[in-house]
Amino acid sequence: MTSNSIEIKDVSHVYKTQTGPLPVLDRLSISVPKNGFTAVVGPSGCGKSTLTRLIAGLMRPDSGSVWLFGEKVEQPRATVGMAFQNPVLLEWRTILQNVMLPLEIVGSSLTASARKERAHHLLALVGLTGFEDKRPSELSGGMRQRASLCRALVHKPEVLILDEPFGALDAFTREDLWQVMHALKKEEPFTGLLITHDLRESVFLSDQVIVLSGRPARAQYILDIPNTGARSLDDLYTPEAIMMLNDLRHQIKVAQERN
Questions:
Q1: Average pLDDT, whole number, for the chain?
Q2: Domain boundaries in the chain?
Q3: CA 159, CA 177: separation in Å to the nearest integer?
Q4: pLDDT above 80: residue 64
Q5: CB-based contact 165:148 (threshold 8 Å)
Q6: Between residues 97 and 107, which one has the greater pLDDT?
Q7: Percent helix, strand and coil across the chain, each to the nearest 5
Q8: Which backbone phi and psi does 132 adopt, to 5 degrees?
């Protein structure tokens, strides 16, 4: 049995555009250990979001293969949860009903009461107890993103894909949600893949950071984070963290120059 949850093997992908083919991934190979948390960073337009769609089974690569837990990905999988920059909560449903939506879509053996209990548990973990009956428009942006994270986890996915979920939030709310993510990681067993432009976020949340090159992207550089447990924001100001951030900034500059 593979020790990795996610295996990207020699994947290439080209988009067809009105001006001709646009290569975005070039023989990309990366792996994410089981129950690990990997951040992917790189220049804008280098194929990070394409990578998430390939892992989720929403697209197929032109060449190469994507594997989850030793099985080749060829279609969408119920064992994958996703959260995006825009929470896309349904206004005609309460927050509790929004969180439970994946259980309706993918199907669940849980009873109705067990589904509610599961959703209430997650909402409590992210600090939304008491807001279950509110509508999305009654919540702040940060609170809606917390609900979105709960929705992505409610069906206990093996893999959680986060595509810049905190990118539209202010700095204080973003840092608060970083700590929420550590609380969720402690309570919920999943393998995480984070797409982000925020280098501090990548270092704070992940066990490893993969820097993609300029388009068409390859894995240019991999940084292993020595402290893989829960962290405080003060950890971002240690000499070790500053060295890692400087290292990543240099790698991003190299990638941008390739573009």
A1: 90
A2: 4-79+160-258, 87-156
A3: 19
A4: yes
A5: yes
A6: 97
A7: 40, 25, 35
A8: -60, -35
